[in-house]
Amino acid sequence: MKKIWIITLFPNYFDSLINFGITGSALRGEREAKIEIKTVQLRNYTPKDYKGVDDSPYGGGVGMVMRADVLKEALLKGVVQDGGYGEDFRHKLHIVFPGPRGKTWNNEYCKDFAARFSVPDSKDLVFICGRYEGIDERFLNLYVDEQISLGDFILTGGEIPTMAIIDSALRFFNGVLGKRESADQESFQSNMLEHPQYTRPKVFDGVEVPEVLTSGHHQNIEKYQREEAMRITKLHRPDLLEKDKK
């Protein structure tokens, strides 16, 4: 079974990821994919003579920095020891820190990430959820394998980006979605947005569903949807089309 470990100050953040939606049903073992999320409460690994997980930065500055020794204890005891990974855990775990230095997460990156870690015998994943002004540089250099950024903006912690990364990546794991083509036909595939979608009622506020979609003519429908995908992309995200020209 693929395990995803999350070291965090707020394990309850991830209840919604596990308890709701398609991703949640996979994490609860209700789908073909066998994936398990295990959270590690960082506060449980502070030194006996020190109750916090953070401290003032050397050299001064505002805010607090998460301690490298506490993070290491949580990793080695809460993940490596409890998970039975042994002394060669670096060959069995891939440690991720969502942070601003990382490559920006997008659909292509997401699919590549899923391809790397969804195959049999691939490494289990560990996510480190930062807080405050960040985490000690030494832990980053010694233990983190990959940093991932959601974009050029600041969040109060790493829990939300971790959930976004997990939720989007798991959709590309075999056995998570009911139909594989569900992922293949959505926005950002082939550098385009998805075509507009319609459902009942056939007429809403005087606007009727496009006639071609109710015609039953599959070739015409596919042609229409391709054209609409192009129109929507040109209108809202023309930058996606520029990628094909490079």
UniProtKB/TrEMBL annotation:
Catalytic class of the enzyme: transferase
A GO MF term: tRNA (guanine(37)-N1)-methyltransferase activity
Chief localisation class: cytoplasm
Gene3D superfamilies: 3.40.1280.10, tRNA(m1g37)methyltransferase, domain 2 (1.10.1270.20)
Binding site for S-adenosyl-L-methionine: 130, 150-155
SUPFAM superfamilies (alphabetical): alpha/beta knot (SSF75217)
GO biological process: tRNA N1-guanine methylation
Keyword terms of this UniProt record: Cytoplasm, Methyltransferase, S-adenosyl-L-methionine, Transferase, tRNA processing
InterPro entries: Alpha/beta_knot_MTases, tRNA_m1G_MeTrfase_C_sf, tRNA_m1G_MeTrfase_TrmD, tRNA_m1G_MTases_N, tRNA_MeTrfase_TRMD/TRM10
An annotated GO cellular component: cytosol
Entry EC number(s): 2.1.1.228
Catalytic activity: guanosine(37) in tRNA + S-adenosyl-L-methionine = N(1)-methylguanosine(37) in tRNA + S-adenosyl-L-homocysteine + H(+)
Any matching Pfam family: tRNA_m1G_MT
The tRNA methyltransferase TRMD/TRM10-type domain, residue ranges: 3-243
HAMAP family for the chain: TrmD
Protein name per the record: tRNA (guanine-N(1)-)-methyltransferase
